[in-house]
Structure formats: structure tokens, C-alpha cells
Amino acid sequence: MPDVFNIIRIRPPVPSWTDGAEWRNWSRHEEYLRSLPAWKPHQVDSVAAESMRILSKTVPVSRSEFQCRGLVVGYVQSGKTANFTALAARASDVGYRLIIVLSGIHDSLREQTQKRLNKELVQIGENWTTLTDHDNDFLIPPNPDGFGTGGTVLVVAKKIVPVLNRISSWLSIVGERMKDIPLLLVDDEADQGSINTKGNRRDVTVSSVRLTDEKLDPDTAPTRTNALIRSILNKCPRATYVAYTATPFANLFINPEAFDREVGHDLFPRDFVVQLPRPEGYTGTEELFGPAAAEMDVLRSVADEDVLNLRPKRRRKGTPIVVRNQEQLPQSLCDALLAFCIAGAIRTFRGITDKPHTMLVHVSHEQKDQMRIGEAIRAQLRAWRMSEEVQSGSMLNPIRSVLKDFGRFALPDGITEENIIKKAIHILKIIEDVAILNSTTGENLRYEDRPSCHLIAVGGNRLSRGLTLEGLTIAYFIRTTTTVDALLQMCRWYGFRSGYGDLIRIWTTQGIADWFVELAVVEQSLRDSILRLEKAGKRPDQMQVAVRAHSHLLLTSNVKSRMADHSGRTWSAQCPQTILLPLSNLSILRRNIDATSRLLSEHPPTVNRHGGAIAFDIDATAITTYLRTFQGHPDAIAFNSEDLAEWIEERVAVGELEKWTIFVASPDRQNQTVIGDRSYGLVKRKPTGNSGIGILVDPRHEGVDLPGGPELYRKGNSYNANAMRANRSSSNGLLLIYPLDPIPLGVTAETVIALAASLPKTGDDGETYFVNSGVPRG
Hints:
By secondary structure, this protein is α/β, with parallel strands linked by helices. It is built from 22 helices and 28 strands.
């Protein structure tokens, strides 16, 4: 696993301005966490360290006036709530008197957050007052100024205009007293609703305004939600705003200088950005769509015909929508439903019987599609149950057929496939609900009322952000999108899957599967850039955070990214790799083999180690000539060989990347191929879409030519690829060649050549793909 996903876990120093803190609320919260069997000691240690690290980046609460803005980046369904709960406990201890948590835009997420904070802070802590509860969002209290008794006031509110209006009005009533009330405002899912997609009213006291500012900030008011959050902060002379999200693209593209004459500065995280460490046991993009995905066998294909049946194309107004096979679910969805029963059976045999088990069906944002599909699923379940009642055992063969395609999984000794099939029929009979989750139905999952349930969640936007689907194993996902942040937030199958991670199966289209494959690289570039910012000791308003583009999707919507600039491309301190390959074009594959053979004949590897063969001291001209001959997938952005060759020549002109090492991966396997004048073992990579193979590079290979080798950069089972690139001389690059086994890829060529390059930090470091044009390069 690339080390970019594991921020160096250094216990941060306790800031001197907290020396008088007694940490009463934090100590009680910490004691509570350590009492829970699900929390391991090192996990509590990590929450303790990370919450202190965030607090240490804020300003002393004793200052008479301050406005602090920060951003915390986590992973989808990875424990962000645990972090800001710990931060709230510490904030209370150091003197924050008002803590407002804006918890998404749906009741379900707000209620979920309210329950957790009540349980983990209020009920066990010291001197808390809550102005919201499980059933009630914020209302102006009868005694508006409730701070006289000391302690901390907690508000957990939805991030919608009516609620924010009430909070803003309440603070106006409190008035001058707010100068004595430090505020911590936690904005959960901060890229949703909080981003200003309109303008800012110019300061009439300024005599001249730059033309560029006029274009970026027309003389219109900010969006209402954004304006109200800024207004709330403006009414508190001592305020810290901490945004939390797993998809911070929009937050990083806010104009750092944006100012509105009525509500003040925008929400750009000018003071700090913190990347939370990847939690132990977390299942995310790397596991499901990277190299490990080949072993997990996660993806299942949904045909275009099935998509059309479930989500028909919309016609012009007045023209009827034709839905084919409306009463009958497509076979792919039927298979997914039966796979859900199989996963439930396997979980039961593993002893997981007291926790919820969920299936996700995410087809369309249209509520009429959700209602129709939900009813069709209910009808299909009734039909199967009735069939089993009329003729016991009628479902044996359908479930047996799906089990054959289910893939690898582990079972306790003595349990047979027939045991699984019979138990799956039992699960089919006891599925408790098909919950259609949208604003019209108002349904909730109610896990607390049925802790051992098996249920199917059908929905759209309410399933796209924040809401946790407990015990999720099977997902049927054909919802399209246009942006990376929306796609990531839809990944409800990410998270902690202790005891059943090998049962995750995702039915989707080949095109969407390709999106997810490249998503792993985009995510890595984002977290890499945040880590570079932290290591440089710079604030986000002093140095750009650069994010790699996605081949098919925008990083975030255009209205949220007006400050995004497509900068000159660089591969400084990166490892570009061919995650898309021209698998359908046999002539290109064979030309790539020929080009690679010529390169290795002219520069034959002479050393065998680290699972491959190495050739040293190759002139850059040979590498750029080869890259210009190599032909990749036409849609590839992560590795465009022509652009990469041009960039290398630019760096050679200034004395960098003049010499190269070539490493040819050659595992000790029976399947081999001849390239140049020798045989090489074939590398296995399983396709994860129409043209994708997931992450190509074995992280240890980036250190094959460094002093001490890759073992010097090993910690446990992980290799610190970032450290390898950091220690590579700017004059030396590494070309990685992977001859892939063609059989799993479904092609008839002798091999499929895939490439990567491990590159040092170069003089143009920091100017990659998309950046905030309002921030200096640093």
C-alpha cells in the first residue's frame, strides 16, 4: 500500500497556550472509547494524537479576536465523526463555549450525529448544555443568552437555510455577549452546500477593483447557505471554522481573497489543511480497485441493456417514457439480490449474527425510478418466496448458479456449499425490508430497532453522502455522475468491513468501473499534495495543492471550481502508470512488444533482483525515444507517453533526469514471454473494467535501484514510495516495465506491456494538473 495513505504518525506537541487545560471532557471521552471492545488501544491513541494535531494548528483561544479557517481531509466512511467528536471534547476543555456541528443536509445524518455526540460527550462529560436533540433541530431558545452558567453549549444542526437563519438570528440576539463566547464551528461534509457558487458584493469603500476580481466576483450576493455560515462566523469575534470532508476539491478551489461586504471572508482553509491517516482495517479505493482488487474479485458487469431497462432515457416533455420489461428485473439485478442472500449466509456461518446486513441499489437520482425499482424488487422477492412455499427447494438451483460466480471466500471447517445455499434461502425468506430512501418517502434504516436485520436500501442522493450503510456487502451501482467528488461520495461500500471484507461485490457497468480504477490515482495525487504542503510547513494560502485530473470526470462542478487552473503538467515526485491499456487493439499491443524488445536488446538488463531484471545508466534519449514509440490507451491522462517524453526532455535541458534505470518485472512463474534477447515471467493483473487494470506498480519496485534497496523503506507490509522518490537523485529516473499475462486480460498477444516511471522531485515541483490559481506556487 502506498505510504501516501499513511500519514507519518508523530504525536504532535501540546501547544503552549493549552497548558492550563485540565482535559476533563477529553479524558472522559478517551476513557469511554477505551472501554469499547471495537476500539483497539492504538486506534484511541491515533484519535488522541490527530485531534491534538488539529487543535495545535488553530490559534490561542485566549486572543481577544480571531477568525481561524481550517480543513480536515479524511476518507469516505472512515471515522471523520470520531475525529471531530474528539476535537469538540478538547475544544471544550481549552475554553470554547459554543460548539456548532453542521451535519449534512438530511435529517437522518443529523440525527445520527446528534445521538453519537450525546452519547460520547454530553452524557459522560462535564457541564454541557444541548440546544438540539434527537427529534429537534435548532430552535431559538426561550432564554437566548444561555451562557451564564459556564460550560459548553452544543448545537447539532442541518446545513439548510431555515436552520442557519435561526442560528444567525439567535447570535444577533445574544449580541455583544458573543465577544466572550469562543465558537468552534465544525462543518461536516463541507463540500456540500457550503461552497459559494455565486458572487461576492464588492466593498464600496474600495475605489478600484481589479478586472480579474470583477470577473470572478460579480456584484451579486453569495449563495444563501454559504452566506449564512459566513454570517454566523462574522457575529463571533473569536471563531474557528473547521471543515471536514473526504472530497475537498471544491474547498481547495475557493478564492483565498474572496470577501463580501456584508458577510466577510469566504471559507477558504487559509490556516491549515490536515490529512487524517488511513485507519487500520479500512476498505477503500486501494483495496477494491488497486492491485489487491484482483484477489478480491469485487466487480461484476451490468450490460447496457439492463441499464436501459432500469433507467430509461428521458424524452421531451409530453412524450411518454417507454420502460421495457417494467415488471421484470434484469438478470444482473436478480443475481445481485441472490448474492446478497449468499453473503448473508456466509456471514451467519462466520458468527456475524447480531449486526445489520445491507445491500445498496443505486440506479438513478430520479425519485420515480427509485420508487419503481424498489417496488419491482419487492415483487421479485415475493415471487421467489411464493415459489419456495409452493415447491420447497425451487430456489436451490438459482442460488447455486449465482454461488458459482460469487468468487473466493473463506468458510469455517465443515461448512459446505450446500449449507450455504440452504442458509441463503432462509435469508431470502427473512429479508426485513426494501427501504426506498428519498425525501418523498421519508424512510429511515432504523438499524437501532433491528440490529440483526437483512435489508435492501434503494435510493439516490440520500445514499450519496454521510449516511452509513451498516454491514454493506452487495452494491448494484449504475448511477452516473460528472464529477470525481460526487463519485467518491457515492462509495457507500467504503469503510470498515471487519470479518466480511471478502464478501463485497459491486455490480456496475464497464464504463463506471473504469472511472473507479482511475479514481485511485486521483485520490493518491490529492493526498500526496496535501502531505507535501504539510512537510513544507506552509499554509494553504502560501502554497498550491495540486490535484491530478481524471480522464472522464471533472474534479468538482464548474461552479465550485472557478479558481481552478489547468497548469502546465509535471510529473515531479510522482509515479505515473498505465492504468488504461489498449486491450482491444491487437496491432498496438504487438507494436508495443516490438518497441520494448528493441529497447531491451540495446540496453539489456544485467542484474536480477527484487523480482525483476535491471539495466543501469541508460541515457535519457533512449527513454524518450521509446516513450514516443509506445502507444497507450487514447483516453489515458495519468500516463500519456508523448507528454511524458516531452517533459523529460525539458528537465534534461536543465540538467535533470539525464540518466535512467530500467527495471523489468519478472516474477518466478511458469508463464513467460520473450522480450528482446531473454525470457521474463508474466505479471498477473486482473481487468477491472473495459480497459483498466487498477494500480499497476508493486510499491517496492520504486526502490530497486536505490542504495539499500526497497527494504530500507519498508515498514511492516508497506513500502514508503514517497520516501523512495524523495531520496532519488533529480538526475536519475526509473522506468518500470511490466509484461502482463494476457490470459486474464482476455487478449491473444504474447504479452501486454504496461509502463510506469518512478520520478524524483524536480525543479518544477508543485505545478500539477489543477491548482487554485489564487494561491502562490510556494
